[in-house]
Automatic annotation (TrEMBL):
Name of this chain's protein: F-box domain-containing protein
Highest rank taxon of the organism: Eukaryota
Lineage: Eukaryota, Metazoa, Spiralia, Gnathifera, Rotifera
Alphabetical list of InterPro entries matching this protein: F-box-like_dom_sf, F-box_dom
Organism: Rotaria magnacalcarata
Domain F-box span(s) in chain numbering: 11-58
Amino acid sequence: MGRQASMKNLLVQLDDLPDEILMCIFKKLYNGEVLYSLMDVNQRLDRIVRDTIFLRDLCLLEYCPVDESTFSLPDPIIDRFCSTILPKIGHKIKTLFLSRTSIERVLHTTNYPNLNHLGLCDIEYKVAQSLFSDESPLAHVFKNQISSLFINLSFKDPFSREGLTSIIFMEIFKRCANLRCLKINPSLFDLGTLNNSIAYRTTICSTLLELHVTLTHMPDCLYILDGHFDQLRILHVTFDRTCFELLDTEHRLKLLPNLRIFSLCCAAKIFGYNESIVLLVRRMLNLEELDLNFTLAHCTKFIDGDTLKKDIITYRPRLYKFTFNIWSRIYYNGIHFPSNEHNQNIFKHISNNHIITSTDQFQEKRYRRYHIYSYPYKWKLYNNITNNFRGGLFTSVTRVSLSDEHPFEYEFFLRIAQSFPFMKELTIKNRKAQHNKQLIKSNNNNQILSIIEYPNLTRLDLRKAHDDYLELFLFDTNISSPNNLHLCCNYQSLERVTNYFTRYITRNKCVNLAALYCNPMASTILAIVEYGAQKQRISLDPHSSYQDICNQIYSLFKLDTINSKYSLQRQDSLKFGLFINIDERTFQNELKQYAIKNSQNPVLRLRLIPAISKTTSKPVNGVLNREKAWSTSSSQCQHDESDRASTNSAAAIDIKQLIRKCLTNLK
């Protein structure tokens, strides 16, 4: 009786508010929340929530802030939508987002005569194949109604994802006759990629105006632009791995006059800036908006304002918006870097941008890194921040990584907190101990230092960090973070910092962790490297990239890091004395797995040999593209699923909780 009385009082308070105030409150909530909780509660609330603003766009997904993923709503909520809500409002829905567990139930519940935009999230291949078949009862909807489609495919077998994604890609254009916009696995973190030139050569669509897609190789992008999508105006492309391929003669000559907006993002590195990026963009004669986000590896010159003007801006007279975030790595010194003022003058006719540059020098690895980007910074990820970071305000950034050869001190973490107020993920890569650790402890005990606050931090990765940084984040007195923090670290580091989990001062902070992920891997791997008749020993970091290891080996044997043309091989684990080629794309993950499986004194035998030229694949910096990996065992080639945390819990929406939330928003 007491609970019912309390609910009644809350409803009375909500019902006392005018319609305008209620509309303002409800607009702050998710439409699905509003409909599930308030439809059919009473006549007045029912009338308000049936407004077009709450019915037009409906998302039946739950959001996980830890890894920015989505998953299905709980079954009781979906049951209520299918049995009571959707049959009443289906005719008013224009946009619908669904997850794999609710797709078929929701789409078969009622008719959606005005449905134009459909989002299918985390959908399995078999479900997608069934939906886009001639036998599907929804075939007429895809053929006659859907003009905008968002589809995010998931695969149980990661090694089959590329071919299966290409099949679905072709089926979509066969079934969707009026498709104007397609976003297929558009996120950088999605697994599915397109890697099948046949899919592009056999697919023709004269209606498509906008395409967002994740690709594997540069030629895949070229086939999209070869005329099969002749009305395409907007193209957003993400490459999920290093791009070695260059443009052939055929694709260098073909012009692309219809494209107005082009965005290119590469998650790894790009080789051959002039032969790929420059020649591709120059073909886009009438480009109005351009967005570039990539790291250029092994370049002989850095990409600065003069370079962008000479290679791109001069050839694009209609370009009025140019955003970019470009890193260049150079393996020798003696280069002059232009000032910020000089770069700013180059872009003065593009009024939306302020240009910022920075330079970092890494003496241990013998290279310099040049960064140029447009400000305001628009990307969610800001990588490789060093002590040279000058600060600023980056409200779009949610993922940050820090790396340097010099230790990070207290003032640096304070600057990071002030610059990235909405940071959710932080990765620290620094093996150097802090210099001012004891001074900070003394000042903190005397309450001289203020607390550094990371209010939105949900994931902290310290697997490549010195123990000092783990200790820093486990002390309440130094750094404040939310109670739902997911911490990734090495088990040995955690033992040392907590004195085998007996240290009292860290106990309270550990209790507040939402999740803890530990890798009991070896901290270093001893590598015995053969080069001709020479043999050397070297210690490898299990987290090192393929290119970093190559640079270490080149330096070990005093080889030219720019013009070296060698292939790296590894001894076969099954046949002693037999060496097989290493695949750069899987090497870093396999190195981690090797360190985990051989946590006690791991030893790795490597061999450096001259690269062999092939007509089908051009060697780039000592690596033959698409070479055989060192092992065909799936257990050695599996993806590291521990890199991202996932949460699969969902609570049903409580009307009492919702009303309190409304009243809180009102206050």
